[in-house]
């Protein structure tokens, strides 16, 4: 039912650099899509209607491929004027093109052949269409254009960072190793230097975010929503839970997990010999230094190749395909956008992995994490377009679970640091959850009270931070103490309400950690099934299909954390 038989298949022979970008002819695209839309919902057979739907999929795939190529090449070099202009072009046109998706949704929902079409394409596509109908009307196009421009402005601002430190000039990602340095003075000064960059741009960041909140609130009101909260959920395609379920989940994290994390931070203080650790101490986990990969980027890729060759025939085929086509860009260089991501180029049927290696264990985490995303979409690339990717919260299950499925091979990356890494990986994964829900609670507060001043927003962040991260003491960093850490969390600016998805997925990925330790082969088989399902089921239905425990159900967090805490308690971390 979910397989997309129409798309031409065949082996892609060219490398990423040869993937051709050509600015689409918008007028021709609109003319063609209008013709096809005239067929859908008209008095035609289900065969003709389904063919028109598949033709629209092909047309959209072509457009999406050009949009994605621009996005990738713009993020690879934010100073490339050509791709900067092309990104501006799409920032302007994408909202206009959304109206045709809106018409498409409207027509399939009203089709006389709807029942038969649901049998062909699956019911979820129609549920998603119902949400799409609520989240767009042509009148909001100028507002969406404004929102896109603000998001690009934020990314460009952060990518512009040139921080002078210890005789060098670094971007934000490259400052990471200094924040984990064994020398406390270096860690302290590095934090202050990073804060200085944000302080120097405070006015601009406040303006960008204030405009974002206001434009999103206006969009919500224009579409008949009380505020942006439910619109944000609907935009993310959440069909089987709402903000009340998320609040119950956050409460579980607060009651069942925050005490565990406080305990872990107390162990950290003892381990590094600092009685009252400050925020700049929290990134250091061991006096012997944090675990690090024992080679450069090329060496790590070689280790990953060996791992994926041995993990399964499916992962071997996938990773070798990625290497042959140069579909990984991992070095951190000036002008490159920050962060890491995986995306998909439909025309070439290829995932693409983007990252910023900096010599820390995060390199291995981001490689396995983004490879999880890439393997998932590679495994479901023959699905109908809307089912290639799961919804956001489900997509993160594949990436975070891959981090844990890599454990039997992790000694290849970390050698003598392997046990240290395993402790660090679990410790940091658990410790991330309270921060993740802080980001979510903050956004609920912001969009429920959109007229907050910038100072009120900062005070709100610090209040929530103290609730979930009571151990975070910023010492003399007055800029962070007033509540500005959220400036560096790009999801708050560009993908509102997305960040909770990482935490939900983490709770599910922990279940794969447990399964893998019991029987790695069975755990991988379940994971492979999840990857192949893609987005053909909603979040709750996906986790039911592979028999994982639902994070929204009371007691799930406590149950999942129990074996992990037992593992961490069994480790004499002061010897690591």
Write the layout of secondary structure elements.
Elements: H1 26-39, H2 46-76, H3 81-110, H4 114-121, H5 123-135, H6 141-159, E1 163-165, E2 168-170, H7 176-179, H8 184-200, H9 202-222, H10 228-235, H11 243-272, H12 297-311, H13 313-324, E3 328-331, E4 341-345, E5 350-357, H14 362-379, H15 392-405, H16 411-414, H17 418-448, H18 454-468, H19 478-481, H20 490-494, H21 500-518, H22 520-533, H23 539-545, H24 556-569
Parallel strand pairs: 3-5
Antiparallel strand pairs: 1-2, 4-5
Q: Would you report the number of β strands?
A: 5
List the secondary-structure elements in sequence, H or E.
Answer: HHHHHHEEHHHHHHHEEEHHHHHHHHHHH
What fraction strand?
under 5%
Number of helical regions: 24
Content-based structural category: mainly alpha
Average pLDDT confidence is: 94
Q: What is Rg?
A: 24 Å
Oligomer class: single chain
Report low-confidence residues grouped into runs of 5 or more. none
Largest sheet, if any? 3 strands, mixed
Please give the alpha-carbon distance between the first and last residues: 51 Å
Helix content: 55-70%
Shape: globular
Strand order, sheet with most strands: 3-5-4
